[in-house]
Amino acid sequence: KKVFLATGNKKKIKEISAIFEGFDVEILSIQDGIEIPEVVEDGDTFEANSAKKALEISKFLDMPAIADDSGLCVEALDGAPGVYSARYSGENATDDTNNEKLVKELSGIEDRRAKFVCVITLAKPSGEIHSFRGEIEGEIVDTPRGTDGFGYDPHFLVPEYSKTLAEIPEIKNKISHRAKALELLKKEIKEIL
Ligand code: ITT
């Protein structure tokens, strides 16, 4: 069975492929030379954007597709950057400029609680969709630590390990928002496809 992973983010492809390693569903992506159009993410929720990405690409390729919409929600910032996580610092945002903005917004604020959210959607060309949500709680630290992972990982401390997600790549793929959503998908994917 084959499914297309509808993302332009190579770090997501790496993490999701690792989680599906040894599982007998074949994951295709842009790294197999398949080109896909850009999907406009104009929804207010992770669920809406995830479903939109999966559905549009599934119809475009006429095969089942998976999409990942994810982001960081910071308690003291009323859930920001949330669905705007990728573009937090503007149109030409990079992980570095996003992290700079995050640290600045939290300066002088004691409450550091945050969570990562991931909504994975599996869509079929018929329009059928199945969505799965995973979350991980942590705390934002001002000084980045670790070089693995991507995005906000160097600033996201996991209290149970006293390490940021960028310091614990093998563990990240077992405990992360993405890992949790994908575990739920794995239980059902073979039946759905
Ligand atoms: P696609 O839409 O093509 O999948 P994207 O990077 O634009 O790629 P999103 O719209 O879902 O994906 O934005 C997710 C952003 O949230 C991402 O760019 C990171 O800044 C952040 N993020 C998501 N998961 C993360 C993780 O595991 N670790 C660190 N940051 C993460």
Structural topology:
Blueprint: E1 2-5, H1 10-19, E2 26-28, H2 46-61, E3 65-74, H3 95-105, E4 113-123, E5 129-140, E6 156-158, E7 163-164, H4 169-175, H5 177-192
Parallel strand pairs: 1-2, 1-3
Antiparallel strand pairs: 3-4, 4-5, 5-6, 6-7
The protein binds inosine 5'-triphosphate (ITT).
Distance between the termini: 7 Å
CATH topology: Maf protein
Helix percent band: 25-40%
Q: In this structure, how is the largest beta sheet organized?
A: 7 strands, mixed
Provide the spatial order of strands within the biggest beta sheet: 2-1-3-4-5-6-7
What is the C-alpha radius of gyration, as a whole number of Å? 16 Å
- Overall mean pLDDT stands at 97
Low-confidence stretches: none
Outline, from the CA principal axes? globular
Number of helices: 5
Name of the CATH class: Alpha Beta
The CATH architecture: Alpha-Beta Complex
User: Can you write the helix and strand succession as a string?
Assistant: EHEHEHEEEEHH
Structural class: alpha/beta
Bound molecules: inosine 5'-triphosphate
From the structure provided, what is the oligomeric state, counting identical versus distinct chains?
A: single chain
The number of strands is: 7
- How large a portion of the residues is in β-strands, by DSSP E? 15-25%
* Domain module count: 1
Cofactor: Mg(2+)
Subunit structure: Homodimer.
Binding site for substrate: 7-12, 70, 150-153, 172, 177-178
Family: Belongs to the HAM1 NTPase family.
